[in-house]
Structure formats: C-alpha cells, structure tokens
Design goal:
Elements: H1 2-5, H2 11-24, E1 31-33, H3 36-43, H4 47-59, E2 63-66, E3 75-78, H5 81-93
Antiparallel strand pairs: 1-3, 2-3
Helix pairs in contact: 2-4, 3-4
C-alpha cells in the first residue's frame, strides 16, 4: 500500500481504498456498492479524482469494479493481496514431513 503514496504518487488512491475498506468493515463481506459522488463527498476529493483513484486501484489489482449496466452504481470488491502472500510465506516455512 505504501507504493500508492510513494511510487505512484497517488495519496487519493490510498484514501479511496481506506474508505472502501472501511465501508465493508474489513470483514469477509468484501463488496460494497457506492457511487463516485458518494466516494468524493466522503473523502473530500472531486468526483474526477475519485474516478481516477478507482481506476488506479483497479489497475493495481486492489479492487475489482463490477457494473450491472452503464448507469448503475458500481460494486467494488476489495482485494487484499498481501494476505495471500502472507499465507504463501507461512506455508513455505512449514516443515515438510
């Protein structure tokens, strides 16, 4: 996540990710439907900045965006790739036998 702020120079993406993650409550239910306008109002960003942040998050594979139609509110699935990596590292440390 620190890459979003440092490498990508996109603190807005980090802010949007934290907002979306907070909306799902960090629980197993990792989907939330929310409009760009709602994201913008909640984070203090402009609507276009929120759209750009979501686009960056999708490109970095931190969220998956699904739409039922062109005018529907997008549904975001929050991904946590570091959990998968931690599980792989933990499995690699276990002794075989």
């Amino acid at each position: 996540m620190r890459d979003l702020v440092g490498h990508d120079r996109s603190p807005s993406s980090f802010l949007v990710y934290l907002y979306l993650w907070g909306r799902v409550g960090g629980k197993e239910r990792n989907r939330v439907a929310v409009s760009y306008q709602s994201i913008a109002e909640a984070t203090g960003l402009s609507k276009s900045a929120a759209q750009g942040a979501v686009k960056r998050l999708a490109r970095r594979q931190l969220v998956v965006v699904a739409r039922a139609g062109p005018t529907t509110v997008p549904e975001y699935r929050i991904l946590r790739p570091w959990q998968r990596l931690a599980a792989l590292r933990q499995a690699a440390k276990k002794p075989v036998g």
